[in-house]
Amino acid sequence: MTDLLALLGHNVAILYIQHRSPYANLQSQETLDALLVMAAFGQLTRVLFQGDGVWQLVGEHHGHAFARTAISAQLQALDLYEVDEIFVDAQSLASRQLTLDDLTRPVQLIASEQIATFISQHAMVVRL
């Protein structure tokens, strides 16, 4: 926690990795909540959707069926907090037979072999 508080005084790059399906558990929503909090503090926040996390970007989700807030509503809040660096693992998308046209928002594709380098460019990485 001390490290996190120290970071608040500096504008550092923080990467949040979304790798779970929208409603498998609460981690997807908790990761988005954490991202929005840090963005509210003016931190440079980026998000990478990987694995089943790419399903969060597909179509309209109905969180009420799971007694939860819809992930799509939380994702719309990214714009309000000026989180516009949204990345998707290209292999995760392709292996689920999805294309950019299937996604609800613009993203930047990143090749799987570039992900390790991409992650290393961030001062903090959050993957729940």
UniProtKB/TrEMBL annotation:
Protein family according to the UniProt entry: Belongs to the DsrF/TusC family.
Protein name: tRNA 2-thiouridine synthesizing protein C
Annotated organism of origin: Agitococcus lubricus
Organism placement in taxonomy: Bacteria, Pseudomonadati, Pseudomonadota, Gammaproteobacteria, Moraxellales
